[in-house]
Design a protein that fits this description.
globular, 7 helices
Length: 171
């Protein structure tokens, strides 16, 4: 599906890609869910990927809350710039390194639901009009939401599929 241009398309694609990702994860037997990815990947396993998505959901929700209150959010996070995103992602991985896959799934589901509410609470114009909100700069609210949802789920799906295929081939 091409990049969403309407609220309905955004909802459909974010749900479709999210469910496709969960379907892939649920297709693995329990003992494979903690399988380490090949070396060279920041995210070391499925839990890391789910926690990464969850944390980026939380950051998006924070940007939204701060921005909609008329303030400038720390983007991507306090103490980081877009150029230092790899360092931020390493910190995210450390934060969640001791939780179970099942907990990461629950946290992701909760933050996913919160983002779906944000999408549903806005008109198409509010979502897709560029420069509508000062905090989104020259882009639209939808651009941020697409990045935090459907595009990110697609990235996660491809990463997990690739890594689990490599692991399977070498075992």
């Amino acid at each position: 599906m091409p990049r969403p241009k309407t609220r309905d398309e955004l909802l459909v694609l974010s749900n479709k890609n999210y469910n496709r990702l969960l379907g892939l994860i649920n297709s693995f037997p329990e003992e494979k869910l903690n399988q380490k990815f090949p070396s060279g990947y920041l995210n070391r396993n499925i839990r890391d990927v789910l926690a990464h998505l969850h944390h980026w959901h939380l950051m998006m929700l924070d940007w939204y809350k701060v921005g909609m209150a008329g303030n400038k959010p720390d983007m991507p996070a306090k103490g980081y710039t877009w150029k230092t995103t790899p360092d931020l992602n390493k910190e995210i991985q450390k934060i969640y390194s001791q939780i179970e896959v099942s907990e990461a799934k629950k946290m992701l589901q909760k933050s996913f639901n919160e983002l779906q509410k944000v999408i549903n609470n806005h008109t198409e114009e509010e979502l897709f009009e560029k420069r509508r909100f000062k905090w989104t700069g020259t882009t639209s609210l939808a651009s941020y939401l697409i990045s935090a949802t459907s595009s990110h789920y697609d990235w996660a799906y491809k990463l997990i599929k690739k890594c689990m295929t490599i692991v399977h081939e070498t075992t």
